[in-house]
UniProtKB/TrEMBL annotation:
Residues 20-421 form the Major facilitator superfamily (MFS) profile domain. The keyword Acetylation does not apply. Keywords: Membrane, Nitrate assimilation, Transmembrane, Transmembrane helix. Belongs to the major facilitator superfamily. Nitrate/nitrite porter (TC 2.A.1.8) family. It is a multi-pass membrane protein. Gene3D superfamilies: MFS general substrate transporter like domains. The chain crosses the membrane at residues 21-45, 57-74, 86-103, 109-129, 150-172, 178-199, 240-265, 271-290, 311-329, 335-359, 366-389, 395-416. One of its GO terms (biological process) is nitrate assimilation. It is found in: Membrane. This is MFS transporter. GO terms for molecular function: nitrate transmembrane transporter activity. It comes from the Bacteria.
Amino acid sequence: MTDKATRIDLFSLRTAPMRAFHLTWMAFFVCFFAWFACAPLMPLIKREFGLSVDQVANINIAAVAVTILVRLVIGPMCDRYGPRKVYSGLLLLGALPVLGAALSTGYESFLWCRLAIGAIGASFVITQYHTSVMFAPNVVGTANATSAGWGNAGAGAAQALIPLLVAAAIAIGVGEASAWRVALVVPGIAMPVMAWFYWRYTQDCPQGNFADLRARGIEIDGGKKGGWASFRAACANYRVWMLFVTYAACFGVEVFIHNIAAIYYVDHFQLSLKAAGIAAGSFGLLALFARALGGWLSDKVAARRGLDIRSTLLFVLIAGEGIGLYWFAHAESVALAVVAMLIFGLFTHMACGATYALVPFIDRKALGGVAGVIGAGGNVGAVAAGFLMKGLGGVQQTLSMLGLLVALSALCALAVRFSPEHKAREAALRDRALGINNSIAN
């Protein structure tokens, strides 16, 4: 705790926490750009492969299904091997299915590549783990939310930029059937480049890398086996499952919107692929500030009113998201739909930030397990939304039902409460971190 950063110096790379902060959001941005690169291409891919509505739904489900399992595993892996090794490995391996999708020849091969690409979504857990071990309690919510928000913007960037890459490829003479394949090569190359930077310039925690610390006999939370005990501890904590539901309601909806927004605007409002990409991309680009705003607000209200107020704030944000989502489903014009999407998107991204502003306080000795299980909840929500769309048979009906379910799930946030002993312990850790760092500054 004594070496954790107590403030965020955005324009500094001199300290290990700030290098980790900037490289985690950059790696996260690249991963999410790659994860969602296929989404704005779906109208082209649907036409080329002759996909049915049911097949498109299967592809959307595949895009997020495997992430559930990988997020559950990758949190404990961070406890054991350290976030530096795990992130670098994920970036290298994740590039393979992205490039494979560009070479797919039909529904089956594309479906399998889309399934494997879903593993990249586990990058979120590593990002939140890395900033959680680098920053002190007074700013950890802001650090988590900002790094996640800026990284999450990769999804919005993919919605907006991938169609432009397709247009550029066509402009230089590449056929339409090949242009979308060329566009996918860009994230496929960016991932291994980012892996090198992450390996070269980050370390696991303020004191160094886990392997070196353990070799010197320094104990790391989670123990030598690193994580499976913390995973079991996380599963036994009811607060984890409450936040599992709230994260399903906010991040799950966010992923679902990323996957269906472009095709919804094309089919429902007859927009062009470029216009639909820009409209859908605006939702993702809210993450540039909205998720950070949720984490910052959580830190600020907690400084005045204690740990429980973080849960109350999350309740308000989830409820607002549900109401806005219902409005979006019933918007009758493009203009109203975009306004409604931006409003409910603001609540959605802020709720994601507020959720992970709570994560570091659930169980410090099971951080990897807690981050992994709650992160998996987001993808469970996205998969559930995909199956809901298959059952209801239409995007508009699905969005309307999701709005009601999200508003109801806000009650889970209110159930997250802490004992007086837990709150006293966290307050002591916060005061200790601030007191020691202030004395160093003086």
